[in-house]
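Consider the following input, taken from an annotated entry for Transketolase (Streptomyces endocoffeicus).
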Amino acid sequence: MTFTDVHTGYGYDDLPRLMSLMTGDEKHGPAATSTLDALWVLYDRVLRVSAEGGEAPERDRFLLSKGHGPMAYYAVLAAKGFFPESLLAGFGAYDSPLGHHPDRVLVPGVEISSGSLGHGLPLAVGSALGLGAQGVSGAVVWVLIGDAELDEGSNHEAIAYAGAVGLERLHAVVIDNASASHGRPGGIAARFKAAGWSTATVDGRDHEALYEAYTASHPGRPHVVVARVEAKV
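Applying the prediction step yields:
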């Protein structure tokens, strides 16, 4: 099974147009646009996934915990050939597979149905453990969460456990748009570092900085990239 990119002809510059096709109420626009660059760099340069690779066991797993704002996710999936652009215009409609929360049963390329805060990181821990238990080598797990999700206690249990067991195949991206209710001494990365994670904090709009942080070596430890973007207003 191959993970070579399908050359759809789309690039990063096409994403704003693809996102503009999705209209209607309850779009959670800031939640979506805050993730756009982080998602693009992952799918364009890092993740071993592709539409033609399907559900091959050795594929990387990407879990969108920040699923209440999926427009950027849908735009990236369309750009990478997981489904046709024509589906985007139906976003949120009764008969559209593209709901306000992504559904793994309906949307090709989606690993989990998500949107409720605090679920993605624990699911990513379980996914990483499951891959190890099945003896799947090479595949890694990525999860994208929002800074406000760190208000949920389930995430802190997952952070503590993953660090304690050295869950090396686990990677997290935290989109920091200053929407969390509670501050943390030393910032978000300090919470993960205290639990034994490898950490990096970067400009969430800088593609080269994101790529460098995503691909940093972290032997024996899970890895988190905190991507800072403009504050939510």
